[in-house]
Amino acid sequence: xxxxxxxxxxxxxxxxxxxxxxxxxxxxxxxxxxxxxxxxxxxxxxxxxxxxxxxxxxxxxxxxxxxxxxxxxxxxxxxxxxxxxxxxxxxxxxxxxxxxxxxxxxxxxxxxxxxxxxxxxxxxxxxxxxxxxxxxxxxxxxxxxxxxxxxxxxxxxxxxxxxxxxxxxxxxxxxxxxxxxxxxxxxxxxxxxxxxxxxxxxxxxxxxxxxxxxxxxxxxxxxxxxxxxxxxxxxxxxxxxxxxxxxxxxxxxxxxxxxxxxxxxxxxxxxxxxxxxxxxxxxxxxxxxxxxxxxxxxxxxxxxxxxxxxxxxxxxxx
Length: 318
Prior knowledge:
There is one protein chain. The chain has 318 residues and is of the alpha/beta class. It is 42% helix and 17% strand. It has a six-stranded mixed beta sheet with strand order 6-7-8-9-11-10, with helices on both faces. 48% of the residues are buried.
């Protein structure tokens, strides 16, 4: 059996789109909302199964990975989040790069020698790696209008992955992958599957308009903290709202808090674009936190720990 395990955001989905265009296969899909980062816990394997893992932290999935390898399965693992120590195993092929300017789809693009690069560019835009996206696109001879199209698509796919549960999303990530995967070009998807693209674009625009009306709870020259209301739109927009704030004020670190269905906080942290470090270390200091150097998050922060977080956040980016 072949199993594809992937983050439900733009990077995870576009990475798998590239791989399955290059290597078509009927596979079992394992994914979830963007914050479902310990996806390997749900994977059961038999000897010689083939498992592809994309865009989830190896460090957060190490115990499950060891179990899967011990069962005799073969694992191809591509990621850019915190990895911890990467195990040496004859059945594991890992492409891990935690550089702040790299995403999983760009790593897959390198692995496939640029065969479906427009999808990698789309994912990089979705991860707010604007410079990296434009650099990767240099070989594609795209117009400025086409670059903006890929930027908008990447943001919309990424936006769709956020939420407290699948019920908050416009499309379940596995369903969205199936809609995208037949298309060798994202431009063909936007043309042929315009209804889905327009639903994502409209949802993003509506939710972002509401978010931009929110005033910061706490703001200095170096940090900004925003608390969104306890509504589905706020859970959908929290991550891409953090990206928008980072783009507006690149010298400032941002934290966007929304309420989970459990009644605690979910936090998206964005390091300053002028100093893309520290977000992973900050969030990993909390039990349900993790991510990458430039962008990370905490899945569940008790309400009474808000001041502890804000103090740590301010200290990190003072």
